[in-house]
Amino acid sequence: MTSIRRFMVIVLLASITLLNFLAALHGYRSSMEKSHQLFDKQLASISQLLMNSGVVQYIPSHNLDVVVAESDGIAYQIWNDNQTLIQRSETLPAHKIVSLEAGYSYANYNGYRWRTFASQNPISKIWIVVAERTDVRYTLAEEVVLNSVIPIVAELPLIGLLIWLVIGWGLKPINRLAAELRNRDPQDLQPLSEENVVDELSVLVESSNELLNRLRQSFERERRFSSDTAHELRTPISALKIHLYNLKIVVPEDNESYQLLNLSIQRMSHMIEQMLILYRTVPEQYVDNFERVDVYALVQNQIIEQYQCFSDKEQLIELDGESFEITADVFSINILLKNLLDNASKYTPVGGNILVSVKQNENHAILAIEDSGCGIAEELYGKVFERYYRISDQKTFDTLGSGLGFSIIHHILDLHNGEIVLDKSCFETGLKVTIILPLDRKKQ
Amino acid sequence: MQILLVEDDSAIAVGLKKLLMKEDFVVNCVATGQQAINQVLISLPDIIILDVGLPDMTGIEVLKKIRGRHAELPILLLTARDEIKDKVEGLNAGADDYLTKPFDIDELIARLRVIERRLGTVKNSCIQIGAIILDIEKHEVSIAGALVELSRREYMLLKALMERAGHVLSKEQLEQTLYGWGEEISSNSIEVHIHNLRKKIDKSFISTIRGIGYSVKKS
């Protein structure tokens, strides 16, 4: 069953047709029966009429024809007591078509079947046989009966149309609900509207809402759990950092265990921060706040914020470009920039170069970060976007990184309808990461 | 320099106390908001380092209660939450500064030093980077012992850069340091002052970060 409407129209129409047919059949039969009785009575009364004329034997045959002419297809024979034919209509022969016994009977003559009625005048002892062709009788009866049955059959298409319309009208609430569900954003877990819901659907809507609610709660719980866990981890990490710092006095800084401990703590700390950011920027949970913002100033501020990681590695960072505005979510763009700059610094050796440029074309802001690091092999460009993927290369092994960076970048670009392009940098070696963001969100 | 450290996590409290004492701060540790409020009544510290997540009340509540009585007392918030609204809430409630866990230890010490210098409670209020010494109390700059004549604006710029050594300061940020003195400045005045400063001190001491601003390297 593909459509309730089609199913119901077909089934209802079929049932109505069947019932109408049965009713018509029954009506036909009983009408035929009744008309049969009626015609028999007519036959008897014609016989009576002939009888009562009382002068049967004196009337020329055509005069009697006039008497019975009103009833089409009716014929007669008049016999005297000696069983001699006195008179007959042209349509009947001179011999007996039925034996002279009072009452109704059938006879076959001249290729037709006749209904006959014989009666004898008790005084003159004259027999009168009146006969009627059954086919004429049937044709007449059928005409009458069919005239009453045909309209019932003829109105079936009209009934079908009416049923189609009424069912369509009745199914409107279902269609409305279906449309509401269809037009819904897949991320939207808000309850369905319970206003104007018909009784039959209210259970469905209520249980859907309950399901949506449970889903929303479990999403929220999952998000809060991850966020809380990451937050809770910040405190022990702080403690680790502090105690490691204090250890510097007791342990020489070039101690291998100290170095590895330091690196592990940094890596763990970095990963937790990235997880927090990821949970905050995944589209399902993220409530964005788009506004007009100077992208050049954002980049400048983010470099200032992170300058220490460049100066620690004695990397030369430069910013090139112009000031212009885009429509963007400041929080996530800052995270995007932080990740890109972190990556650039991470994969660029001590004393290397990083060149950042902010330019615009007709519809897009073009943000490029080029470094003089080891770069990424072209065939790995696609892989860097996979969450948790870290390029396991000897050269990059010692650098910090959770592998979450690029997937965070990807999330944020999705949010902004932006694009990322990887290429070789303008330096001898290294990676160029180009971010393309629409200037105006509405144009997308 | 007396610090009241309000932190319920003992691993952090013990470690931080040890670390700060090594930096010649006098540290007093308490673990609850109520204890912090009581402690401030008993003996007023110079600085409070306040954790936002405390067992009995939030750090913000403690901050508001203490702020009510001591408007000038420097309070530095420590928190595991770093959403912008948390930050704004903290600063609106009257915090002087805000550090997110896990914070950089050097960053914490640097911020404490800035507060300390602002309070003027330091015996040795000098910032030394390489051969250059900036004496905040005397408003003097010397290179390898020899005094250098600087205008007040040049001095303010150099101080701002040296206080944030290792960081970069944008032209706008440097302008703000001067605006603080109610000075009218033309658009290229920062460049002019930096140019003049470079003539008076080691040329490579202040580096230009193209497109971003100026920076002084850490020693």
TrEMBL record, chain A:
<dbReference type="GO" id="GO:0000155">
    <property type="term" value="F:phosphorelay sensor kinase activity"/>
</dbReference>
<dbReference type="InterPro" id="IPR004358">
    <property type="entry name" value="Sig_transdc_His_kin-like_C"/>
</dbReference>
<keyword id="KW-0547">Nucleotide-binding</keyword>
<dbReference type="InterPro" id="IPR003660">
    <property type="entry name" value="HAMP_dom"/>
</dbReference>
<feature type="domain" description="Histidine kinase">
    <location>
        <begin position="228"/>
        <end position="441"/>
    </location>
</feature>
<keyword id="KW-1133">Transmembrane helix</keyword>
<keyword id="KW-0472">Membrane</keyword>
<keyword id="KW-0067">ATP-binding</keyword>
<dbReference type="InterPro" id="IPR003594">
    <property type="entry name" value="HATPase_dom"/>
</dbReference>
<feature type="domain" description="HAMP">
    <location>
        <begin position="168"/>
        <end position="220"/>
    </location>
</feature>
<protein>
    <recommendedName>
        <fullName>histidine kinase</fullName>
        <ecNumber>2.7.13.3</ecNumber>
    </recommendedName>
</protein>
<keyword id="KW-0808">Transferase</keyword>
<dbReference type="Pfam" id="PF00512">
    <property type="entry name" value="HisKA"/>
</dbReference>
<dbReference type="InterPro" id="IPR050428">
    <property type="entry name" value="TCS_sensor_his_kinase"/>
</dbReference>
<keyword id="KW-0812">Transmembrane</keyword>
<dbReference type="InterPro" id="IPR005467">
    <property type="entry name" value="His_kinase_dom"/>
</dbReference>
<dbReference type="InterPro" id="IPR036890">
    <property type="entry name" value="HATPase_C_sf"/>
</dbReference>
<dbReference type="InterPro" id="IPR013727">
    <property type="entry name" value="2CSK_N"/>
</dbReference>
<dbReference type="InterPro" id="IPR036097">
    <property type="entry name" value="HisK_dim/P_sf"/>
</dbReference>
<keyword id="KW-0902">Two-component regulatory system</keyword>
<dbReference type="InterPro" id="IPR003661">
    <property type="entry name" value="HisK_dim/P_dom"/>
</dbReference>
<dbReference type="Pfam" id="PF02518">
    <property type="entry name" value="HATPase_c"/>
</dbReference>
<dbReference type="GO" id="GO:0005524">
    <property type="term" value="F:ATP binding"/>
</dbReference>
<dbReference type="GO" id="GO:0005886">
    <property type="term" value="C:plasma membrane"/>
</dbReference>
<dbReference type="Pfam" id="PF08521">
    <property type="entry name" value="2CSK_N"/>
</dbReference>
<keyword id="KW-0597">Phosphoprotein</keyword>
<keyword id="KW-0418">Kinase</keyword>
